[in-house]
Every structure is written in structure tokens, then in C-alpha cells.
Design a protein that fits this description.
The chain is of the alpha+beta class and 166 residues long. It has 6 helices and 8 strands. The protein has a 6-stranded antiparallel beta sheet with strand order 1-7-8-4-3-5, with helices on both faces. The chain starts with 10 loop residues before the first strand and ends with a helix. The relative contact order is 0.21.
Length: 166
């Protein structure tokens, strides 16, 4: 259906690889590609509330004007200040990163710094976006994140077991 927002389901773990690249997990590659009009283009940004990154396809930006208008209406109803220019800069400043057929991409250094990324990333589907975590940062989150932490540990163990078999 035209205009429908993409849904990102699944998880994945990627150690930093050769040439400083990470791998977008297979669970997400096709959805991101479809949401980026057939291009292998992942949009990345710092999460607005949590100490992680978000990833999504380029078509998500089509909903930003409506989202800004909604947030402005809510702020007005609550009598709270709302700076539409600041919020527009926050949501519209995402990076567009190409990935190859195997999902390999280079994370922009400034985004890695904002999310304290080290040698690995954990990807967790979250309906309209993928949350992308440095595992140590995720493990420091509160108990409301326990199921996400467990999924991360499971994906880390899978990668570790695969590496041990080689």
C-alpha cells in the first residue's frame, strides 16, 4: 500500500569487521531496501530519547512533516514550548549510508561517538525503526529493557559459537 510505513522486525548482532565495517542483519536488509526505493540505503541517526542509534529506510522521512505538526499540537495543548525548527533539525539530520549486498556499511564516526559504539552493534526491530545499540550501553539500561538485553546476549552467543566452529 502506498504511503504505508515500513515495519522492522527481528534482531541481529554485528562485530566491527574489516575496513571498519558493520553488517546490517539479514532480518532488515530487504525492508530497508524497499523503504529506500530499491536502493541499498540505510538512514541512521541518534535516538531522540535513548543512548542508541536508530536506522530506517528513506521513505520514513515522508512522515516527518505530519509528525512535527502532531508534536506541535500536543505541545500547544499542554501549554509547553515547542521549537519546530529545532525539532525539524533533530529528525531531519539523519545520515544516509550505503550498504552492499552482504549488508556491510561504515558507521559515520560522529554517530558512533554519540552512541558510545565500540567493537560491536546490536540491532533490534522496533516497528517503524531499528534501534541500534552498543551492547555495553544497552546492558546498562534499566530492567524495562531486560527482554532486549536477553535478545542481544543470545545474538552475541550465536556469533561467538559460529566463530568458535571456524
Amino acid at each position: 500500500m502506498a504511503g504505508a510505513q515500513s515495519q522492522y522486525w527481528g534482531q541481529g548482532f554485528s562485530p566491527r569487521g574489516e575496513k571498519n565495517r558493520f553488517v546490517l542483519p539479514a532480518d532488515f536488509r530487504q525492508t530497508v531496501r524497499e523503504a529506500s526505493r530499491g536502493q541499498r540505503l540505510l538512514c541512521l541517526d541518534k535516538h531522540a530519547k535513548h543512548p542508541c542509534l536508530v536506522g530506517f529506510g528513506e521513505s520514513r522521512a515522508e512522515s516527518f512533516a505530519e509528525m512535527l505538526a502532531h508534536e506541535e499540537r500536543v505541545a500547544i495543548e499542554r501549554g509547553e514550548p515547542f521549537d519546530i525548527d529545532v525539532r525539524a533539525a533533530q529528525i531531519g539530520g539523519f545520515a544516509r549510508v550505503s550498504f552492499d549486498d552482504s549488508g556491510r556499511f561504515v558507521l559515520p564516526e560522529y554517530l558512533g561517538e554519540q552512541a558510545d559504539v565500540g567493537d560491536a552493534l546490536y540491532f533490534h526491530g522496533g516497528m517503524h525503526q531499528i534501534t541500534i545499540w552498543a551492547p555495553d550501553v544497552l546492558f546498562a539500561m534499566g530492567p524495562e529493557w531486560d527482554s532486549v538485553k536477553s535478545a542481544c546476549r543470545a545474538r552475541m552467543a550465536e556469533i561467538s559459537a559460529k566463530a568458535a566452529r571456524k
